[in-house]
Amino acid sequence: MFGAKACLAVALAMATYMCEPEKENDGNQCQTSTNNQPDGGLQCGVEYDVSDHNGGPGRFAGKVIQYVHINAAGLVETDAISELLFIAEYDVPNLSVRVQLCRLEIPAVQVPGQPEPTSFQFLDGFFDNLGAVDVAMHKEGTTTCSRLGFDPAITLFGVRLTDEFNDQLPIDVATQSCPDGGANPNQPACIYDMDADGMPGVTLIASNLPGIDVKEAYMVIRSWTGTDAIVASDDLILGQANWGLEQLVIGCSIIPMGQTVMRVCNNDERDVARNVNPVLGQVTNKPGDYMGVRITVDYDCDRVIAEEDELFGR
To answer: 22-28: long-range contacts at Cβ-Cβ below 8 A with a sequence spacing of 24 or more?
Structure first.
């Protein structure tokens, strides 16, 4: 799998490098080159149409390969690869893109001395009811190999903010819970029960936390992704993605040693879970690789996930 990802990254880099828009003509044409088709098929300077061909937004399944720097409380500091999947609707006349997040991964961390990695995973079906995000499109030119990207699409989990990109995430459930249960999407930083399971924030399944048998972690999360890409054809967009992922533990539940019944963590136990929760960031000077592939209206997130290999290749 790593080899496939590496090949995709090389292909994207080649496509972008070999078909870089000329600055003097505002990105409408590619550089004149005797080798303008690095993958044997990419043709620059051809009029493109990423709409649905009926005047509506064109729907694309998007995949980002993220190069992640991990720091887990100083126990582990390493780099890893993760993936992000979404559906993007490109509305060219209105220079807008609607982004529906389909899958988000928090990379597992191999803690020294533990046979299995520490991990946090979303519950099955969690993304089914996640709302879409509308962001501004950036478009240069009307022909293939000209740039087409979008502003950071921010998705919040279990938290409401006034400034979704810059506000600090709240972590104190006792004093920072939303007074309206999160009904107002734009309000001073507060925590609400996003998945309606009676626990604050959003619930993730926790596995193999060192020193404590945490079964569920309750988090507030901010995820964002923006793209800087080129149009390869009516059906294919290639390029790079900058991204961010911030996840904070605000509570947890454990099964204490020698017992069989799960209970809510006390503050000390919560702090242990909070300390081993990894800090994730983009590897310096290494943006993610982005591929957008046209899909029909009958695709939803479940189908994009199920057909990932068919859509994007192995």
So the answer is: 26/140, 26/141, 27/140, 27/141, 27/146, 27/147, 28/140, 28/141, 28/142, 28/143, 28/146
Per-residue confidence (pLDDT) for residue 115, from 0 to 100: 86
Token pair for 47: 């009029």
Q: Is 201 left (phi over 0), alpha (psi -120 to 50) or beta?
A: left
* Distance between start and end Cα atoms, the chain: 7
For residues 29 and 43, give the distance between their C-alpha atoms in angstroms, rounded to a whole number.
11
Using the CB atoms, write b or e for 75-102: b if 16+ within 10 Å.
bbeeebbbbbbbbbbbbbeeebbbbbbb
Within a 10 A sphere around the Cβ of 205, how many other Cβ atoms?
A: 14
- Per-residue pLDDT tens over the stretch 182-217: 999 999 999 999 999 999 999 999 999 887 899 999
Distance of CA 235 to the CA centre of its chain: 21
- Mean pLDDT on 171-189: 97
Q: Which helix (H) or strand (E) holds 18?
A: helix 2-18
Nearest to 218 by CA among 174, 284, 173, 258: 173
Dist CA 232 CA 14 (whole Å)? 12
Question: What residues does 192 pair with on adjacent strands?
Answer: none
93 contacts 71 by C-beta, under 8 angstroms = no
Sorted by where each begins, the domain ranges of the chain are 2-117+124-151+227-241+279-312
